[in-house]
Design brief:
By secondary structure, the protein is mostly helical. The protein has helices at residues 2-39, 50-56. The longest helix has 38 residues, at 2-39. The protein is rod-shaped.
């Protein structure tokens, strides 16, 4: 009975450590994204043709307009 209890506590501790790693990983990703957005706030990107625009567009939150020479 003592061995089963020890194994159970060990498994619970292991699960908690894995959850903490996942939380820290997500927090780091959020902070990196926040810093990136603060760094690029208000900047404008100009693409020479619409194909480049479609390939480089990765974030659906922004509204980019392709630039084409007249």
């Amino acid at each position: 009975m003592v061995v089963l209890r020890f194994i159970g506590q060990f498994m619970i501790a292991k699960r908690n450590m894995e959850e903490e790693r996942e939380i820290n990983k997500r927090a780091n990703e959020v902070s990196k994204e926040r810093l990136y957005k603060l760094k690029n706030f208000g900047k404008v990107k100009i693409y020479k043709n619409s194909n480049d625009f479609k390939q480089k567009r990765t974030n659906s939150d922004t509204e980019d307009v392709p630039y084409e020479e007249v």
